[in-house]
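subagent[fold] <- orchestrator: predict structure for attached chain, return tokens only, no commentary.
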Amino acid sequence: MKQYHVIIGHFGSGKTEIALNIAFNEAKTGKKVTMVDLDIVNPYFRTAERHKELHEAGIRLLNPSFVTSGVEIPALPAEIYSAFNDDSDLVIFDVGGDAAGAIALGQYYRFFSKIPKEKLEVTFVINARRPFSMDLEGNLEMISDVRLAARMEIDNLVNNTNLSQETSVNELADGYELVKKVSEATGLPVRNTVSTEPTLDEFRRYAETNKLDKAFIGDYMPITRYMHRDWDRFTTQGL
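subagent[fold] -> orchestrator:
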């Protein structure tokens, strides 16, 4: 039966990276995947950056062009509604991490409310190295915004603390401490700790040596970094 995965995070949290990795991994197993980009907050790192790769992988991308941004949410194209009644096995929603993103998501409440709970997963991504998600208060505020504006409950948390190519075990360790605080404050379980494979290997050793609580680590999720400017894109599109 069709599954829905909503991935929410503040600007720079890396939620789009996670959404892309899940989409590509699931498509490789033969699943029919649709991605819906509802991130109206960040115009620079969008799923549309990888539209060619998504198309080649057989992943359908719904990427509306927003005419405005901020708290006044534009009307979203009717095509987005098709994500709720197409024949996809998995639909991934990439949602911007502020009140505006929550309101954009809330426009689809009447559809989400009809999905059986076991078929809908809502994940909140935390990057302790980015503004707005680097402390307990900022993360709790966003979780509250989602609950109020989108009328949806968060199911789990992800530690995606990183500095892009400069990420080290220190980032994941600091992220662990912050995610632990958020988890304890909200009662939400930790789904994943995310990074590239070499950094995850180093963090595994760190976690064992320092006896970190596995409950606040979750499953290790190795990723490929798609959301960076390679040379070809830089020469054609700029920064």
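orchestrator: received. Logging for downstream: Helices lie at 15-28, 51-56, 99-106, 109-112, 136-150, 169-186, 197-209, 231-237. The two ends are 41 Å apart (CA to CA).
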